Amino acid sequence: MQGVPSHPTIMSAASSDSLVKQAHEHPLSGTPGSSLAELHIPTDKPIIAVDLDDVLSQTNKVVMEWHNDTYGTNLTLDECYYYYYWKNPHWGTPDETFRKVEEFYQTGRLDSAPRIEGAVEGVLTLRDMGFRLVVVTARQRRELERSMAWLHSNFGDAFETMICTGQSQETLADEHDALTKLSKAEVCRKIGARLMIDDSVENALKCATADPPMPVLLFGDNQWNQRVATYGDIKDELSFAQKLEKEGGREFWKEETVTIPEGAPMTRVKDWHGVVRWVKQNIEV
Question: Which of 44, 68, 107, 279 has the most CB atoms less than 10 A away?
Fold first, then answer.
């Protein structure tokens, strides 16, 4: 494909899956995530961690289109108010949402998702500046092979590898499973990343407030990163329609904003031009 290197040199999905599985499934046998070191990511150059969904891939666009086609809705990205889908119109309760997400993963739509505008140019610029790039995604490990296939097809050998933290929405259905997964902040620390680029304000805040803090760029001018999606016990969570009724029709989401803690290394960037500009100004190679 024009503008994208060919003949990718990324490690096999099988070997990466095995190593990350060890880190996730044996969190008490030494330091959590210690086996990530076995990924053998070279440290001769500074590392930048990059999220996959809605930083590289237009995932939410594809998901909304699928929902409209399947359930006869007319969802737009402007109605994707929160990171967790059940908090948005037409998705239903958490249980209904988990079922829908599973249905979506059974389709091939994710495999043909378009790239984020400017992503190829931005990624290649960072690589040519001397950075090593690693995808750190919340997708489950079972999605690693198809995700890497999409990455190879769209970005060639621009990335060293991909790490799936397994903290995607369907994982939340199993509270124990969610608690045993490594956070993106922990993965970034283990691989020695200098920066995380993520569209999720929830993930960005966790990185920026970690100990030690991980510098993070909050990517995109999206509705779902204009407010924080929090929840307590997921069994007590309401659907968007239920909460709207409980609030008496008040447009509660319009009153919510994001507060970045003072001094936290977290910066909003609108697009890949903003990413490259920030990196040039703030990280020496």
Answer: 279
